[in-house]
Structures are given as C-alpha cells and as structure tokens.
Amino acid sequence: MDKIIVRGNGPLNGQIPIAGAKNACLALMPATLLSEEPLTLTNAPRLSDIRTMTQLLASLGAEVTALQDGKVLATSCHGEINPVADYEIVRKMRASNLVLGPLLARLGHAVVSLPGGCAIGARPMDIHIDALSALGAEIELREGYLHAKAAGGLRGAVHEMRFASVGATENFLMAASLAKGTSVLKNAAREPEIVDLARCLRAMGAQIEGEGTSTITIEGVDRLHGATHPVVTDRIELGTYMLAPAICGGEVECLGGRIELVESFCEKLDAAGISVEETERGLKVRRKNGRIRAVDVVTEPFPGFPTDLQAQMMALLCTAEGTSVLEEKIFENRFMHAPELARMGARIEVHGGHATVHGVEKLKGAPVMATDLRASVSLILAGLAAEGETIVSRVYHLDRGYERVEDKLRAVGAQIERVKEDT
Ligand code: UD1
C-alpha cells in the first residue's frame, strides 16, 4: 500500500489540468448497456473507480476498451447480457448501483448486489427503488441482492423523489429513456453530472428535457443508438486544486475550470479572501492579501456547496482567522477527517452534523490516515501548508478519485512524493 509524504512549503504557481469528472463518467459508462451500438466517451479520467466500473460492465457482457492512455473509453454491448452485478465487484464502489436502471430497461430484469463505497454514512437504496418501482419494476431484497423485474417492460410515470438523490436521478433517466410513454421526474437532482448524462443520452437518441432543473421529462423511445460524448470537467477535482494556492499562497490556473461548475464554492472562497478569475483556459486562483477569513459552510445538493468539497474546505479553514462552522447536510458521518486534521494541530469540535473549526496560525506536519476519498485529499492540502512533514497513509482511497495527484501538485511547486508502505 502506498503513502504520500508532503512537506509544507511556500507558494504554488503554475497550471493544473483538470480531468473529466469521475462521477459523470461512472454514470455515463453504464449507459452503454442501453444500446447495441458503441458508445465512446472522451475526456475520461484515469482512476481506479473507472477501472472498477470497467470490470463490472465486462462481467455483465459489455466491452470497455481504454484508448489513448485511458482518456478515451470505447464501450459496446451487442452480445448476450448477464443481468447479475456481483457483490465482489459492487462492494468496491457504490456507483455500481448505476447499472440497475439500464439493465432493467434493456432486459426487463436485473439482480444487483447492494453496494459498499466510502464509509461516510448509511447510503441506502430506497430512493432508487421507489423511482424504478414507479416505472413498473418490482424490486425485492434477497440475500444482499436487489432482484428487479418489469415483466411487460417499463412504463413511463410521474414520480417525485423524497430527496434529490444524484444516483437515483441517473438510474431513473436511463430507465425511463427506454420505457413506454412519458415519464416526469420531480425533485430531480440538478448536478452538472446529471446534465452531462442527459446530453449523452440525447446524443444516443433519447428524448429528454429539463435536465439541470428539478423537473425532468423523458419521452421513452424504442431503441437508443451509438454516440461519442466528451465527459464534463470534474468540478470536485477543480475545487480541490483551487484550494491549493488558497492554502499555500501563489497563483494557480486550473485548466478547463468554469465558474458555473463551482459557483457556490467560489462565493465561499471570496468570503474567505481568495480571488478567482475566469480566463480563456480556465480559472485562476490567488490568495488576496492577509490571512484567510473564517466562513460558515452548509453542504447541500447542487447548486449548493458540494459535500464532496467539505473536507478540503475544512483544511483551508483550519488556519483561518476566527471560527467557522461547517454543517454537513448530505452525509451523516462525513467528518472523519476532523480528528486527523486535529493531529496536525487543528482545533475542531464535531457535534452531530456540525463541525466548529477554530482557526490556528499554523498546522504542523504529522502522520495521518486517509479515511475516505475526499478526506485523503484534504489531509494532503493541509500538509502542503503545515510546518514539517505530513505522512498520509491508506492513500488507495485517493486513487479512486484523483489521477496523478502528486504529479499535478509537484508541477506547481509542491514538495510531495509517493512511497511504498512496508505493510
Ligand atoms: C453522488 C456522488 C457522490 C456525492 C453525492 C452527493 C457519484 C458516483 N457519487 O453519490 O460523490 O457525494 O452524489 O452529492 O456520483 N440516499 C438515501 N436513499 C437512496 C439514495 C440516497 O437515503 O436511495 C441518501 C444518501 O444516504 C445520502 C443522500 O441521500 O445521505 C445523497 O445521496 P445521493 O445523492 O444518492 O448520492 P450518490 O448518488 O450516492
């Protein structure tokens, strides 16, 4: 197992290219199950989660070929399809549940293991089940697997989700694209990854309107055809690297970044004393004069502040002037980075869904442990500005969501290296 060693140093300067979005790509790849014709995804990120989805799709009978060093994924699913998504693959990643909608739509039945994923909360599947049941699927849980069937095929329906779940919106979109008749999803998630999936499905011949709003209308079609689709920029990777110059000083241009992907995040950066400027190639981030100011943050579904940037934002606020309160409204157990940051001298109190961060002048390097994907990168960010050396172990979480993190940070002047762990 690898670990990452970070030495706190001065300002960071230069450019960081932002990859295609992991979370978009993980929803786009299963869309290949909806058509006999090939689906090609460009601007794909090179991550272990993408390899896990490749493995899952292959186990179902689809082909996924990584071209151009993994930046292009050529997918197709023209042969026999296995309807069973096995626990051994699904447990590695919750996004595996995104094969449920497409399998049901294409085959009329599916058996999908309940997922695992990051240990950041209960993450049940009830919203997915309700949404697909509304389309006429009968779903029951037996021995850890969801057994779903739609005997006469899926039928369009109006459905309102109890919460705007990202994954359930994606499953519903894919399933309803091949259902008979019109479907309307109310209280749909509005994340850019949903918009990206809808665009891709439309390129495949689906009839979808309203993506990016709370009401999405889908007119079912008999079949979908092949398409080539570029994966949208990863707004979470973008926000993460925007925080590097915010924490360390200097000026970094994040190539491919766009304000509309990270608007609520940018508002908080501005309030904390960080300037963000749109350029022709991306977003240029610079720390204004003086110390970071404390800000309060509440995580919410898009367009609110993303939960996937909460841990990284906390790393910034650890050295702010004053006290910040971070409220986590999406996942109930997502402050596992707080005790690790405390090992570096941060002063954080966690009470339920709130974390109160009392800013300190400086963090100090320490051995820390990554507990989930976004927590790992927050520890790296904190280490970049800490005095001395920070050793982050269990970085396999990191490789699920960040391609070549150490190369990208080193290119702007960070002192960071990856070493093999003994145990
Ligand atoms: C997606 C993202 C993840 C991000 C999250 C919230 C992918 C692959 N992952 O996850 O990085 O943190 O959106 O922006 O896109 N819930 C239920 N029942 C359900 C489904 C969800 O109670 O059936 C709850 C979850 O436990 C959680 C909340 O709803 O508390 C949000 O989950 P959801 O929007 O579904 O997130 P994911 O699609 O799993």
Write up this protein.
The protein has a 4-stranded mixed β-sheet with strand order 22-23-1-24. It starts with a strand and ends with a strand. The protein has helices at residues 22-28, 48-60, 87-90, 100-107, 126-134, 166-177, 192-203, 235-248, 263-272, 310-317, 337-343, 373-385, 396-401, 405-410; strands at 2-7, 12-17, 39-42, 63-67, 72-76, 84-85, 109-113, 138-142, 145-149, 158-160, 182-186, 207-209, 216-219, 227-230, 250-255, 274-278, 282-287, 297-298, 323-327, 347-351, 354-358, 367-369, 389-393, 415-420. The model has no long low-confidence stretch (mean pLDDT 94). It is built from 14 helices and 24 strands. Helix 6 links the parallel strand 10 (158-160) and strand 11 (182-186). The chain is elongated. The protein has 2 domains: 2-19 and 233-420, UDP-n-acetylglucosamine1-carboxyvinyl-transferase, Chain, CATH 3.65.10; 22-230, UDP-n-acetylglucosamine1-carboxyvinyl-transferase, Chain (Alpha-beta prism). The site of uridine-diphosphate-N-acetylglucosamine has 22 residues, from helix 1, helix 5 and helix 6.
